[in-house]
Amino acid sequence: MPKFLCLQRKLPSPDSANSAKPSPAQMADMYAQFNAWRERHAASLVDLGGKLGSGKVVSAESADGPFVEVKELVGGYMIVEAEDLEAAATIAGACPGLVRPGSGVEVIEIHVPGA
User: Fold this and answer.
1) Distance of CA 54 to CAs 49, 70, 72, 84, 104, Å?
2) Architecture of domain 3-53+70-110 in CATH?
3) What pTM, to 2 d.p., does this model score?
């Protein structure tokens, strides 16, 4: 079955600038929703991924930028296995907290050489 890379992306949104941090009760509710989503889609979740941290650009040339840092665009990743792109997008889009004002998910099929 195909695998898909899901990238949490920062998106321009007028609502994201005014959004307050969730309260402890809201966070607890979000985690409960996330855990229910994770259990419902356990068979499709190959790698829950995580947030991205520090990185470095490696190239054949010893150029030093200016490069856009991935962490400025991508908040995190996960890999899902699904029948097709639409099914993968449905799974990723249903993840609580992944799609919200100022954030979306980009779903990309992973092509494995020789497969």
Assistant:
1) 15, 9, 11, 32, 21
2) 2-Layer Sandwich (3.30)
3) 0.77
